[in-house]
Design goal:
The chain has 23 helices and 21 strands. It is of the alpha+beta class. It has four domains: 277 residues, FAD/NAD(P)-binding domain (3-Layer(bba) Sandwich); 148 residues, Beta Barrel (Elongation Factor Tu (Ef-tu), domain 3), CATH 2.40.30.260; 76 residues, Orthogonal Bundle (Arc Repressor Mutant, subunit A); 60 residues, DNA polymerase, domain 1.
């Protein structure tokens, strides 16, 4: 509806005027609201329930494979997820240690209720930010541009930009066997009306499904039948600022263990005997579910060669007895869930406190979204998080900070921040969604990133903190700490390169201890560290005058030296990639006039409107030959297009 139509509705009234309105206060909404308000924009954040800000309705954890990289990238830009997670961690681990540093990923088990409380506290104390419990049912658009939002109670809030972050709440319904409830996660209210408003504005709407496992009471289970999975010490904080200040996340003595078990033959039989009551296979569930996080019944159907599946039993927090059964989501009826849980080791007498359920929800087709996360259809309307087809808290938060920044830059009449695939996992995430689209909830994985050796969790600050500072999310004090850290890394690498040692007894012993032949002549400390099996710390035996650096600096120096050759190769690939990314395509270009392009390519390019040749090259159905034709056309017409910018 337009503004005049909104004002004409009975009982409608103007309740306020803001620069940026954020609809939804999940992980995307919280990051978007924090970014916009910190950049000086008068911002309002709407939530269906004030006590559910940054709710963790599924796994009570932050980070994990590829997701940990996203959290640290958010922090490096100036976001808040990492800092809040550091305060609420009850177990810390670094995943993929058996592989190279390119895929090291930090993960924290989180105190669920504390996380929500701490996030609310941070946002309530943020200047320029107003938080309002309210149900947005309509977007108000004049001449193709967002101008406001309307609540269920007919309150109109003017805005210059709007970020929709509805998560899994938009027209959602939860499903447990034959019981279907028109609600959001955890029995919270769902978003109604907004999906219809988006459809009326011309945005394509999809429908997805996800699910969550049961929660059981700790006092009712037998932990002695389970394998213990303890946390790890000396894991760096998610927040680089916390790391630079020497702040430690939960020490090993403060951490709680997780436990692992396996399903049994009885589990499999219970599920097999009740598949006729599974909403997933009876046709009750219409939405598409996540490929990489299937329900337990789906696992037994899809992976018939596996007789059992692993389940992790995890604490929900320090002040609750609730335990989360990771890997055991289901939409089977409550009675069947009881039988399934009681078939598991240590859970024979378990008391279920919350039942599992599946949830369906509406979302916007991400192919209708620009790389800035602004809609291609409505000017000033941005979308972020699961409403764009992603899954996971971290993927949502990553989009939230991008959308919050770009909504603010839009209001300030500045160019958007576009992170490329070579700059960040965030860039990979956004590019995959808006260029390739998705027909299922999208999950970030390290295998999706072509330049993952360059996109490590330990160097997110080097890649993104200068950008965050330039935009205004990183203050001068933090940026000064960052620059000091980088200067120390550069200085130490240069010192190691210019410091030589001969075959002294300490070096001979070091080399012999690891089964290597000692050098016969002088060798630089840099070259020593580059050798397999030798670490920066080990070289201290023959480098006794070195400075006492913090762990993050030592690791950065060691990684840079050991992987220098590989990093140079990757940098060369990135340079080639950037050439195509920097080749802008005019947005008004009619691909039908380009002779030599195949029909499918013309259709795809006209529909998706890529902003660069690089983005065009990643569109399904556009071949390398089509890209060659496009490059020739752009070169031949470059005078006409010389003022175009991404």
């Amino acid at each position: 509806m337009n503004f005049e139509q909104a004002k004409s509705i009975e009982y409608a009234y103007e309740a306020g005027s803001f620069d940026v309105a954020i609809v939804g206060a999940g992980h995307a909404g919280c990051e978007a609201a924090h970014a916009a308000s910190k950049l000086g924009l008068k911002t309002i954040l709407f939530t269906l329930h004030l006590d559910a800000l940054a709710n963790l309705p599924c796994n009570p954890s932050i980070g994990g494979t590829a997701k940990g990289q996203l959290v640290r990238e958010i922090d490096a830009l100036g976001g808040i997820m990492g800092k809040v997670a550091d305060q609420c961690a009850i177990q810390m681990r670094m995943l993929n240690r058996s592989k190279g540093p390119a895929v090291f990923s930090p993960r924290a088990q989180i105190d669920r209720s504390k996380y929500s409380v701490m996030m609310k506290k941070v946002l309530e104390n943020q200047d320029n930010l107003f938080i309002k419990q309210g149900h947005i049912t309509d977007l108000i658009v004049d001449d193709g541009k967002i101008v406001g939002v309307m609540t269920e109670s007919k309150a109109i809030y003017r805005c210059k930009a709007c970020v929709v972050c509805t998560g899994t709440y938009m027209e959602s319904r939860t499903i447990m066997g034959e019981v279907i409830s028109l609600s959001g996660p955890d029995g919270l209210p769902r978003s109604q009306g907004l999906s219809k408003s988006l459809k009326e504005l011309g945005l394509p709407i999809l429908r997805f499904k996800t699910g969550t496992p049961v929660r059981v009471n700790l006092a009712s289970i037998d932990l002695s039948q389970m394998s213990i999975q303890s946390g790890e010490d000396d894991i760096p904080p998610f927040s680089f600022e916390n790391e630079m200040k020497g702040l430690q996340v939960a020490s090993i003595d403060e951490q709680v263990p997780c436990y692992s078990i396996w399903t049994t033959d009885e589990t499999r039989q219970v599920i097999h005997d009740n598949m006729d009551r599974s909403p997933l296979y009876s046709g009750v569930i219409e939405g598409t579910g996540p490929r990489y996080c299937p329900s337990i019944e789906d696992k037994f159907v899809r992976f018939k060669d596996k007789s059992r599946h692993q389940i992790f039993v995890e604490h929900m927090g320090n002040d609750t007895n609730e335990m989360y059964l990771q890997g055991f989501s289901t939409s089977l009826p409550e009675q069947i869930q009881e039988q399934m849980v009681h078939s598991l080791p240590g859970l024979q007498k378990a008391t279920i406190q919350r039942n599992a359920y599946a949830i369906e929800y509406d979302l916007v087709d991400p192919l209708s979204v620009k790389p800035s996360l602004e809609s291609k259809i409505v000017d000033g309307l941005f979308t972020a998080g699961q409403v764009n087809g992603s899954s996971g808290y971290e993927e949502a938060a990553a989009q939230g900070i991008v959308a919050g920044i770009n909504a603010s830059l839009k209001v300030l009449n500045k160019e958007p921040m576009i992170l490329t695939r070579s700059q960040a996992y965030i860039g990979v995430l956004v590019d995959d969604l808006v260029t390739k689209g998705t027909n299922e909830p999208y999950r970030m994985m390290t295998s999706r990133a072509e330049y993952r050796l360059f996109l490590r969790q330990d160097n997110c600050d080097r890649r993104l903190t200068p950008i965050g500072h330039e935009i205004g999310l990183i203050d001068n004090e933090r940026f000064c700490l960052f620059e000091q850290k980088q200067a120390q890394i550069i200085e130490e690498k240069q010192r190691l390169k210019s410091t030589f040692t001969g075959p002294v007894p300490e070096l001979v012993k070091l080399m012999e201890d690891i089964g290597m032949k000692p050098p016969q002549s002088g060798i630089s400390l840099e070259e020593l560290i580059r050798r397999p099996g030798i670490t920066y710390d080990m070289v201290s035996l023959i480098d006794k005058n070195r400075k006492d650096f913090t762990t993050d600096i030592k690791k950065a120096v060691e990684t840079d030296i050991k992987y220098e050759g590989y990093l140079k190769l990757e940098e060369a690939k990135i340079a080639s990639f950037k050439k195509l990314e920097e080749k802008a395509i005019p947005q008004e270009l009619d691909y039908e006039v380009i002779s030599g392009l195949r029909l499918e390519a013309k259709q795809k390019l006209n529909a998706l409107r890529p902003v660069s040749v690089g983005q065009a090259s990643r569109i399904s159905g556009v071949s390398p030959a089509d890209i060659a034709v496009l490059l020739v056309f752009l070169e031949a017409n470059k005078r006409e297009f010389k003022h175009e910018r991404l």
